[in-house]
Specification:
It contains three helices and ten strands; from the N terminus they run βαβαβαβββββββ. By secondary structure, it is α/β, with parallel strands linked by helices. The chain has a five-stranded parallel β-sheet, with helices on one face. A three-stranded antiparallel β-sheet has the order 5-6-7, with no helix packed on it. A two-stranded parallel sheet has the order 9-10. A hairpin with a 2-residue loop joins strand 5 and strand 6 (about 105-110). The radius of gyration is 17 Å and the shape is globular.
């Protein structure tokens, strides 16, 4: 089995969050290219952390917009506009096929369309599935992403029950 490449980080715990902050600080100090994968809440949190440190990350979003299915497109477009104004560059509509490296460190992302992007630091905010098992069949589920269907007030299909975060899905 191959040893994992240095420079690839996942946000799944508080300790990993601390390591990501250290990696972003190093990326700023060493002028590294930061690639953030994932256009939903976890990916956005990683991206914003980099922006707050003064970085201009490259944001890989497999859907046409950030927060696809979670926010109305007009709201997502506003986020994208604001992020672009901070220097964030978007790569949309593709998925990372493979991360490759040299000397044990990540150096490139290869996308499913054949495009290659250089990178020194990768923050992965994908693969999170909402845990809705506790609700059984009592709430409507969005088949696109497995989240609970909510309205503009974040109310689910059951009156008085609200959802927010990765578990919520807008029509």
């Amino acid at each position: 089995k191959e040893k994992p490449l240095e420079g690839i980080h996942y946000l799944r715990s508080a300790d990993e969050g601390i390591r990501i902050h250290a990696a972003l600080t190093e990326a700023k100090n060493e002028n590294k290219i930061v690639l953030v994968i994932g256009g939903r809440f976890v990916g956005m949190e990683c991206l914003i952390a980099g922006v707050k440190l003064g970085l201009k990350p490259i944001f890989v979003v497999s859907k046409p917009h950030v927060m696809d299915g979670l926010l109305p497109q007009e709201v997502a477009a506003r986020y994208e506009k604001d992020l672009t104004e901070t220097g964030v560059r978007f790569i949309r509509g593709v998925k990372v096929k493979k991360l490759v490296g040299e000397n044990g460190k990540v150096t490139q992302a290869i996308f499913d369309n054949g495009m290659i992007q250089a990178c020194d630091c990768v923050l992965v905010g994908i693969g999170m599935k909402p845990n809705i098992a506790m609700f059984g069949d009592s709430l409507k589920v969005d088949k696109r992403n497995g989240g609970l269907m909510v309205d503009g007030y974040l109310e689910t299909s059951y009156a008085g029950v609200y959802a927010i975060g990765e578990v919520a899905s807008f029509p």
